[in-house]
Amino acid sequence: MSLKLAAIVPHPPILIPSIGKENILRLEKTKNSYSKIEEYLAAEKIETIVIVSSHGPIRPDTWSINLAPEFEINFEEFGDFSAKLNLGGDLELAQNIREKLIEHHQVQAISQPTLDHGCGVPLYSLLANQKNIEVVPLYIAHAGLLANFNLGKIIGAQIEKGRKKIAVLASGDLSHTLEKKSPAGFSPRAAKFDQRIIELLQNKSVIDFLNLDENLIAEAKPCGLSAIAMLLGILGNTGYDIASTAYESPFGVGYLSMIFKPLPN
Predict the structure, then answer these.
(1) For residue range 38-90, what is the model confidence (pLDDT) as tens digits?
(2) Could you tell me the residue ranges of all domains in the chain?
(3) Residue 1's pLDDT is what?
(4) Pick from 10, 33, 12: which is nearest to 24 by CA?
(5) Dihedral angle of Cα 123, 239, 255, 164, to the nearest 10 degrees
(6) CATH number of 3-262: 3.30.413.10, 3.40.830.10, 3.40.50.1100, 3.90.190.20?
(7) Distances in Å between the alpha carbon of 85 and those of 67, 115, 208, 228?
(8) Residue 195: how many other CB atoms lie within 10 Å
(9) Is 133 helix (H, G, I), strand (E, B) or coil?
(10) Which residue, among 51, 237, 66, 233, has the nearest Cα to 151 in the 3D structure?
């Protein structure tokens, strides 16, 4: 089995020490979850991370796969010019995934060496001390949860054909309307929405997740649901246990971290 680890990871730029500074102290649960994932990466001897981003080159009905041979992570758009990281791309796996996907879906191949913060924050947080791990960045399409889930099933089947030890990360945040200070306004239903998401994931209620109320989604304004749907599709090729769950929202945005351990076939 090639898939050894999967996780949902939030991507607040303030998670980067040189950006967040003292605010990182308010992200203790998220930081602890990242530390656990980093330990799993080392223990499982992960060779490649496939990361699904909810930012970057997003289109309504076209998914993207980044085929750059090398990647740079920086946070200059957030005013930080000190935190940087260079990583290699897994071109073999990326090409194999692309060739399979274009048989069924609209998929564009791109070559963008500089990664968006949806990829950059998780990868910088996890790989600063494990730079030998290669990456394959994927980008969702705004085509609905089911469409992203079905794409994930194809990707998962392709991952299982490989020889390398793979981890998959779904990068995204939950509600952006939890408080009056939230960046997208306030919804009194957003907090219950986030708890519903966590409950569905913990209970492995995939069908209910894929059929979430679109009006409520629009009200809560999460950015990570499609990435999570794709991750669930990837995991749909194998059984899995949930190793840990953490949630916090100190800045009016819901940050969910969840680690999945695929079961041996």
Answers:
(1) 999 999 999 999 999 988 877 777 899 999 999 999 999 899 889 999 999 99
(2) 3-262
(3) 60
(4) 12
(5) 0
(6) 3.40.830.10
(7) 18, 10, 38, 25
(8) 13
(9) coil
(10) 233
